[in-house]
Every structure is written in C-alpha cells, then in structure tokens.
Amino acid sequence: MSATDEMTLPRWSIWLPPVVLVILAVTWGRHLEGVLLVFEFAALVAAITVAVHHAEVVAHRVGEPYGTLILAIGVTVIEVGLIVTLMVSSPDKTAALARDTVFSAFMIAGNGVVGICLLVGALKHQVVSFRPEGVAGAVATLGAVATLSLVLPTFTTSSSGPTFSGAQLVFAGLASLVLYGTFVLVQTVRHREYFLPIDDAGTPDDPDDDHLLLPSNRTTWLSLVLLLAALVAVVGLAKTVSPAIEDGVRSIGAPETAVGVVIALLVLAPETVAAVRAALHNRIQTSLNLALGSALASIGLTIPVIALASIWLSGPLELGLGPKDIVLLALTLVISTLTTVMGRANVLQGAIHLVVFGAFIFLAVTP
C-alpha cells in the first residue's frame, strides 16, 4: 500500500483533544452556570465525538478484538482513577460511590448499549448475527465477577452492613482480576476467533468511509495518544458538570444515586456511540465486544483497585447491592444468556434489553 493510500487524520481530530483539555483545565473546580455550563456540555460532546473517531482509527489498524479492548480499558482506567480520587478526598460522602458507579456501568452496558445496538441493527438488517461462544463467555465471566463483588457483600456476616471484611475484599479483588485477566487472554490470544466479526456480516454502507484505508503506524500512535487525551477530557468534563447534574437531581426529588447513573452515562458515551455505529454497519460482534467488555472492565478493574486503595481509605466501603438492584442484575444475566444462545437476534431481544434498562433508569429516579 502506498503512502497515498494510507488514512490521514482530519485536522479537527488533531486539534480538538488539546482544546478540550485546555477547557477542562480552565474550568476544573469551578461551579458553572448559564452560558458557561452550556459551553462545558458542548466541550463534552466534542470530546466524546473525537474519542470515538480516534478509537475507530486505532481499532481499524490493530484489528478486532484489540481495538474494542483498548477503548474499554482506556475509559475504565480513567474512570477508576476518578473514583479513587473522589473517595480519597471525601471518604465520608463516597462510601457507596464505587458500588453505584460499577453497577450503573453494568446496567448501562449490559442493557442500554446491548439493547440499542441489537434494536438498530435488527431494524436495518432484519436479523443480526454474532459468535455465541465469545458472547456467552463474556456473559458468564460478567455474571461471576458481578455476583462475587456486588451481591455477596450483602449476605456476608464478617462485617456489618453491605460490606466485605479486609480479607474478603482482598479475595474479591483477586478473583475479579483473575477472571478479567483470563477473559482478556482468551479474547486476544487463545480463542481470538470467538470474538471476531462474522465474515459475512456485511460492510459499511458508505463506500467512501475513511476507515476503509489502513492508517500508518505513525498515524495509529498519534490517534492512540489523542484518544487517551480525549478520554481524560470526557471523564474530567463529566466530573466538572456533575454539580449541575446534582442540582438537577435534587430539583426533581431523585436520590443521590441518580447522580452516579448520569455521570456513568456520560463517561460511557464514547463506547456507546462506537458500538451503535458498528451495529448500523452490521458489525454486531464488535458492538457486543464493546458493551460487554466495558461492563467487564468496569468491575474487573475497579474492584481490585478499590481493594488496594482501601488501605488508605478511612471510611466504610459499601459494595453490596440492595434487593431491587440484585433483582435487576439477575434479570439482566438471565436475558443476556438467552440472547446469546442462538448467535442471532432480532428487534425482540433489543426491545427486551431496552425495557430492562428503562426500568433501571426509572427506579434510579423513583426508588
């Protein structure tokens, strides 16, 4: 392939990440109102857009499933850093922050992203196909990690409340890390073919799509750096606008946990947009890799880091879910298992996941 056949990055995708980082630095720690708040939301949308663009460039160069893995882990690592920072700065107010954020990510990715991808894909292509062996493995790993980390603390008796004792927290962290590490090994090395798009899944509708051209190594590395910068901006800007979100939540009388849901929606926006774009192009395997990989990374990386950070945290760490959330988690795992059995789905499966996601959002606002 000649140099003229290589993908080139549009100029807006190069200068936009530094610009949104500057906006983040200028507005960090300030309470924004009026026009400034609208401007901040516009910067957040821009950061999400450019993050998706660079994620797709990197994904096209390294191939599946590495591309989706990079985006999922990138968002999760930055999200975990934000959680730990908030917990260290205000341990008395953030006892349940990790639990609420992780569970929100689980429900958003496992129902919201999966549901909308199956729905839009099936509406456009009638029936969408994926590899059940890969998706089923992701669902099984997700079920084990979520149950060990978020359900068991509600029923253990070594410590009061929905918490783990020190030894139990270490075990949960190690178990999460082992399961997630094994999943990544299977996904990228031993059984990579389980997570590759089906050969006849179709091609993008737009024949002029830039992603049909292969980026050079230099372009790929530049996109990777710009992707990480954009992800930092997404998470940081989401944190910056969180006071306005908190004010809005209080104004409608919703509980504080709804704030975590909104922030999780913003943080997961790059992955959601990328997954939906893949579904529209009939690459549903890529969409499911992104959705389930994000949920797995969120739990599998957050719990070990929180277990390590608990050495310095003075306040309690609530990980156990309440009865309502346990029911929603179990329902999600059951329907996810049934969705993956045949390796094919239509609008019905998409609608089911979206209704469960709607129930989660509704009950988060009106518990």
UniProtKB/TrEMBL annotation:
Compartments (UniProt record): Membrane
Pfam families cross-referenced by the UniProt entry: Na_Ca_ex
Keyword entries, A-Z: Membrane, Transmembrane, Transmembrane helix
Domain Sodium/calcium exchanger membrane region positions: 35-188, 223-364
Keyword Membrane found: yes
Transmembrane stretches, start-end: 12-29, 35-54, 66-89, 101-123, 135-155, 167-186, 221-238, 258-280, 292-314, 326-343, 350-366
Predominant location category: membrane
Keyword Amino-acid biosynthesis assigned: no
Domain of life the protein comes from: Bacteria
Membrane topology listed for this record: Multi-pass membrane protein
Protein name stated in the entry: Calcium:proton antiporter
Organism: Angustibacter luteus
